Amino acid sequence: MQFEMSQAIEVLAGTPGVLNALLRDKSAAWLNSRKTPEAFSPIDVVGHLILADKTDWMPRVATILDHRDTRPFDPFDRFAFQPLMEGKSIAELLDDFSEVRRQSLQTLSALHLGEHELDLRGLHPDLGAVTLGNLLATWVVHDLGHISQIVKAMSSAYSDAVGPWRAYLSILN
User: Fold this and answer.
1) Measured between alpha carbons, how far is 109 from 103 in angstroms, rounded to an integer?
2) What's the pTM?
3) Model pLDDT for residues 16-60, shown as the tens digit of each residue
4) Which domains does the chain have, with CATH numbers?
5) In contact, 4 and 118? CB cutoff 8 Å
């Protein structure tokens, strides 16, 4: 499947609603479940996605449009989300994410990017040359990966409780 801006926006615009449906009004047990001790919990994922929208995706779009591949992207600290979450409920975090995502997509839409711009190159500090299209496709897959991570973390909370049915539940294996 080739990258298409309208299809990308379908997923990016839908992510806040998906997270809202999965996480709003859930207990701390669900919000803090983890597939492994070092993995993000569902609430961590929300904080991480807020941080990424504020400091990663659109700033990198701007870097490509303004500097092409003459200036590398600023490094992204994927764990720097904790201060954004302090003292906030899941409802507040979901609302924050919805708003920051709305703003990101509004900014993206206002750029009126065409095929030419999607081929513009940027410079990732670790990966080297990437295109704007690569960046935007990665944003979509990043969202989908974290939705999957949330579902797997929540499922793993009941990995023992399902008993012998575990053999039929591929999400737990």
Assistant:
1) 10
2) 0.95
3) 999 999 999 999 999 999 999 999 999 999 999 999 999 999 999
4) 5-172 (1.20.120.450)
5) no
